[in-house]
Amino acid sequence: MKAKYILFIFAALFIVSCEMDYDPVAVYSDVTEGVTEDSLQVEFKDKAAVLEHRQTLLNLYENGQEHWYLDVLLLAEVHADNAYAGSPGAETTPFEVNSIEGSNINLKRDWNAHMANVAQTNKLIENIDEVNDPALTETEKNQFKAEAKILRAMIYFDMVRIWGNVPLVTKQAGDITSETVEEVYPAYFPPQTDALTIYQQIEADLLEGLEYAPENDPANKTQLSQSVAKALLAKVYAEKPLRDYDKVIKYADELAADGFELVEEYGDLFGVVLSDPNQPPSNDNRAIDATLRNSKETIYEAQYFPGNTNWVTWMFGRPLEEWNANFTWLKWITPSRDLIRAYESETGDKRFEQAVVFYEADWNLYYPADQYAFMYKTRSAYNSIIKLRYADILLLKAEALIAKGDFTGAAAIINQTRQRAGLNDLPASASASEESITEAYMKERRLELAFEGQRWFDLVRLNKVEEVMNAVFETDEGRPDLVYPFTELSYILPIPQDIIDQNPNLVQNPGY
């Protein structure tokens, strides 16, 4: 009987590994495996092996553009009111019309990629203390473990906001043998953990990571620094399960003390340097670099250079480094008329031209072909992908002040981002009531952070999904018909059905 049980598990694990491109059983390799004096196998044989795996972790965001960025925009912008699907299909249209099901392949690849990334963080966290190499100091061990915990928290923060109850895996699974099968099995097929417990683990990882992570390096914003932990803590404490607006304010203020502030020119965050800035882009006048990396506003970003470029740019519009490349097919994340009207209602808003661009296209699905709208914030292969920036956290402080009844203080923060955008301060009437200042705040976050993966999560966090999304289909003539109305059950998405089929301990989210 036990032999059949083992065969079942190995068969299931084979399926999982095929789907994830990651084999959880093959935890040892010739590169990393070491042997102690007691003939016990260890993951990292020396400091060099640790450094190699640490670099893998530091590169996860840079290399995971599909699940860290592309699919997040599909959810946060298309499933909200900022964008249309762009290229209709089974991958994209369900996000646009609220008909997402567990069979959606985007959700499957995102779940698999996130869980594989969690496994990579656990590998370092669980094994680094066992490395017997005098060259690896205790200080380094503490730092590298702290970085891995911050990264694990970041991954789980995305997962819990997308799916709610997800498996909480903080231990590395061991080898499966006839003697260990009953003990090890749950590590490969874990049940879901309630969202509150997931948030508590995120909080614990960030607080522990904060203690030993490196300080912010103004010259390198790709590091998992103390400031990254502070920014994530501010975002975590704004969410309902652990909501503590005093702590949102605390960590926003600590980031300011770390030296973060708004850059003077909003466009520097997303612009590129052209070979001749006085001429429009063309194949003879290509983008040659990002305008600015490691800005004083960026907290965490992925950076791209010649030879290691940002491939997702051609998914959204024209890649400015190759003007005519990959511009013969419909693009994802098409700016909505509703968003464009929001920008146009603020005359002179500099953020509009940084978020949306109009080109002549060969198609006219959402707009006339001669004036077609495209997302513009990721416009070349050299654009950084900014995961965390100070404007987001600063505005979360305004949200906290609103919750505490300080409408004037919230308006003062909102005016900071408005002034940079070339706009006048809010009128006095905007801070006259909680309703009016909340409306101004939601609009400001929308215009400031459009196409940065925030809008859907803002609507969910502030219980605005039904109010906003069920109404926008009546006012935005560019949208196809809504399939299902938005309800509280829409706040989280379905768990991929293939994952449920592989793991009998998982239960589908209500409503799907």
From TrEMBL:
Cell compartments where the protein resides: Cell outer membrane
Keyword annotations: Cell outer membrane, Membrane, Signal
InterPro entries: SusD-like_N, SusD_RagB_dom, TPR-like_helical_dom_sf
Gene3D superfamilies in the cross-refs: 1.25.40.390
Domain called RagB/SusD: residue spans: 383-512
Pfam families: SusD-like_3, SusD_RagB
GO cellular component: cell outer membrane
Residues annotated as domain SusD-like N-terminal: 46-237
Family named by the database record: Belongs to the SusD family.
Protein's recorded name: RagB/SusD family nutrient uptake outer membrane protein
